[in-house]
Design goal:
The complex is a heterodimer. By secondary structure, chain A is an alpha+beta fold. Chain A has 13 helices and twelve strands. A three-stranded antiparallel β-sheet of chain B has the order 1-3-2. Classes of the chains: A alpha+beta, B alpha+beta.
């Protein structure tokens, strides 16, 4: 209870502080005059009386300050005053201010810019549906130190049939070149994908449609998909792109869809370019088990973890290694897609971040130097203020 | 403590009067920096041990008079008790053996 009323009193004092301050001044003046009068009565000469009184009183200004402190808000007041004066000083010495602002600005600006780039790349969510449920499945040969190679269609089939951990498993072929002769000669980076590819990834097209089941039937009129970039750059954003026919690698195909701008191809291999042209591929024609041409992506079932899928696939891998001589010594690797797409970029990006932090450090050091130079300049000011009775902390607060 | 005691003895009094009283009663042994009275009085005001109001002094000048509150009286008793405790301890230590 006492504490509460104390706080209330503090607030009252704070709101009336200027008034109280002048009251205090008047009070002290009264005190001094009474003292001086007493001194005179005791026989001191006129002028001495007053000075004696003042001496006995002590440093009036400091007493006033202490009184204000007792009211308890002086820290805040001091801070506000410091800010005010600092601004004034900075404005006066424009050159210094400009330099300081520039240095800090450069440091902070560069760091922020790079940081947002890194943020965008490293931390950006993948443009697929529920991307953390997607994994890439590779073949690897630990003994020969071969990691993450593409697999063949027969293996892919076996993986798909024998595994229970996945809601869908799909494959994309290695990159190949589609040479267009009609309407205009052009060369596009192309991929073949199986029927479930876009569905498993959860990609919608920006225009048109993805491949349907019937596109995979032999003898059907061939279709193709374009990437957004290809549509923009090679086909000039043709509004009538759907239904246009091109001749690629000697085969006439109809464009049935355009993929969205943010599409990223999952699990690209070293040296791959972003694909511009997709065709449906029924890989069953590739009967050779050793032909490693497929990138395999799968979606984990909701209740299955990547670790569980990994061990299941390891078991399948062992079985296949026993069954087929080709597969001997190879194992299956299951990696979450997020790790795959980013890992290549990771090291250079961390390096960049490090460089930027060093830049920031340099900026700070520069600032410190500038301030140091300045404080040498200001030594005279400090000396004067110390003599006037400023306390040490207050002195350097500014 | 001395301020509170002076107020207890004198009744409502202004700052100068308190300082004078302390000096006279202690027979000039205690010569304090008189100005330090005022921050102390402010602190006591905030803590609610004294109340202040403006009044007329003996020679018809405006002066602020301080008065002890019941809480202040309690505080005074606490401080005196503590002081006497310390005094006794010191006395024991310096007793001739």
């Amino acid at each position: 209870m006492g504490r509460l009323s104390e706080i209330r009193r503090r607030l009252q004092f704070f709101s009336r502080r200027n008034e109280l301050d002048s009251e205090l001044e008047e009070e002290m003046r009264f005190h001094l005059e009474m003292k001086a009068r007493r001194n005179r009565e005791n026989g001191m000469p006129e002028d001495e009386a007053y000075y004696a009184a003042r001496r006995q009183f002590g440093n009036a200004t400091r007493q006033r300050e202490d009184s204000r402190e007792a009211w308890g808000w002086s820290a805040i007041e001091r801070f506000a005053k410091d800010v005010q004066i600092s601004l004034r000083v900075l404005r006066r010495d424009a050159g210094f201010t400009a330099l300081a602002v520039l240095t800090l600005g450069l440091g902070i600006g560069a760091t922020t810019a790079i940081f947002s780039v890194i943020n965008g790349v490293l931390l950006r969510p993948l443009p697929y549906k529920d991307p953390d449920r997607l994994v890439a499945i590779w073949q690897s040969r630990k003994q020969s130190n071969v990691a993450r190679t593409l697999t063949s269609y027969p293996n892919f089939q076996d993986w798909r049939e024998q595994s229970r951990s996945f809601d869908g498993m799909t494959a994309a072929s290695i990159q190949f070149t589609a040479t267009l002769t009609e309407p205009e000669p052009d060369v596009l980076d192309a991929r073949g994908v199986d029927r479930g590819f876009f569905k498993t990834l959860g990609i919608q097209v920006a225009r048109g449609r993805v491949f349907l089941e019937e596109d995979f039937k032999p003898g059907r009129e061939s279709v193709a998909l374009l990437s957004w970039a290809a549509w923009e750059l090679r086909f000039g954003r043709d509004p009538n792109i759907l239904g246009r026919k091109v001749r690629a690698n000697g085969q006439v195909r109809t464009i049935v869809g355009v993929l969205p701008q943010w599409y990223r191809h999952p699990a690209p291999a070293e040296g791959d370019k972003p694909p511009e042209f997709w065709i449906p591929m029924d890989f069953s024609g590739i009967k050779a088990r050793q032909a490693g041409v497929l990138t395999v992506i799968a979606r984990l079932k909701p209740e299955v973890s990547a670790a569980e899928a990994r061990s299941e696939m390891a078991g399948i891998g062992r079985r296949l290694a026993e069954q087929y001589a080709i597969n001997k010594g190879s194992e299956i690797e299951v990696t979450p897609l997020a790790d795959v797409l980013v890992s290549k970029m990771r090291r250079p990006l961390w390096l960049l971040l490090g460089a930027v932090l060093v830049l920031l450090l340099c900026a700070c050091v520069n600032m410190a130097n500038l301030l140091l130079a300045r404080s040498v300049q200001r030594q005279r000011e400090f000396a004067i203020r110390a003599v006037l009775g400023g306390r040490r902390g207050l002195l350097f607060g500014r | 403590m001395l301020i509170l005691k002076s107020l207890a003895r004198l009744g409502p009094m202004h700052g100068y009067g308190i300082a004078l009283h302390i000096q006279q009663t202690s027979e000039d042994v205690l010569q304090v920096e008189e100005g330090s009275l005022y921050p102390a009085l402010q602190r006591m005001l905030i803590k609610g041990w004294v109340l202040a109001e403006w009044g007329q002094s003996e020679n018809n000048r405006r002066a602020r008079y301080y008065r002890l509150t019941p809480a202040g009286r309690e505080q005074l008793n606490r401080e005196i008790t503590e002081f006497e405790r310390v005094m006794r301890a010191i006395t024991r230590v310096i007793q001739p053996a």
